[in-house]
Amino acid sequence: MKGFYNFREDGFQAYWFEGTTHKDKAIIWMHGSGMNEKHCLADSEYMRKAGYSVLVLGFYFWRGMSKKMRAVPVDYVEKAVEVLKRDGYERIGIHGISSGAAYALLCASMIPEISLVLSICPFDYVMEEPKVLGKPTGRSWFSWHGKDYPCSLFTGQREKGFLGSIREYKKHDAEHRNEFLRSFYENATLTEESRIKVENMKADVLLIAPERDNQWPSPTAVRRMEERLRRAEYPYRVKAVIYPHASHLLGTNPPESWKKAFPAERKWPAECNEARKDCFEQEFRFLAEWR
Length: 291
What we know:
By secondary structure, the chain is of the alpha/beta class. It has eleven helices and eleven strands. It has an eight-stranded mixed beta sheet, sandwiched between helices. Strands 5-8-9 form a three-stranded mixed beta sheet.
């Protein structure tokens, strides 16, 4: 396999690192919103150092890619899986953080060759593309074979606008005012059509979230998915971990400057650092039982 894949030749963009200890297990590794190649390569290093074969994939925001999370193709991962299978990898997993975690879950629900999912700070519905100023666009985050995946709408923002949503939020939540972004999702209209059909996966799945996620309601999503899989009598491994004192920076090695933007990091710095350490350990323990 080559070290770099590009759209023109391969239909997806990624960096490839062949493993040393676990050569037979390939992980498609993705970050979250607004993360360029530099951040993705830096934060995926722990997986590469552990000896796993890692394909660090860009799903948006990389050089030459759209800066908007709009109609991001699941096809990128479909093509990456085809390449990995062609080159002899029978066990293919996928990892994502935040919006990358939602993307990973959606990909696994549609691509049966993916047999393991590591989903850090996920959400379980596909939403419309957000817009800071003005009304949201109505365009879905993700697409499949050229067609937008059904999306839920940011109803509260549509009714009040961005600035109106801020004013309304401040009236009703004085304690957690740094969780404004989370309120967009809590006031959205979620539909069954836009739900990520996690019960269709054929994969072991690890779901990890912080209890006070100020970016979006990932702990609510994790509990919903865990219950959905339980009721569906899902035949694969499921593990859910929710940290009482952690932030949306789980799964990363953030600089100190990033931590200042997250209330949990300021309130519980030691606990947040410990949760990040344990998150990595949870991933490795889950990978060790991947058969």
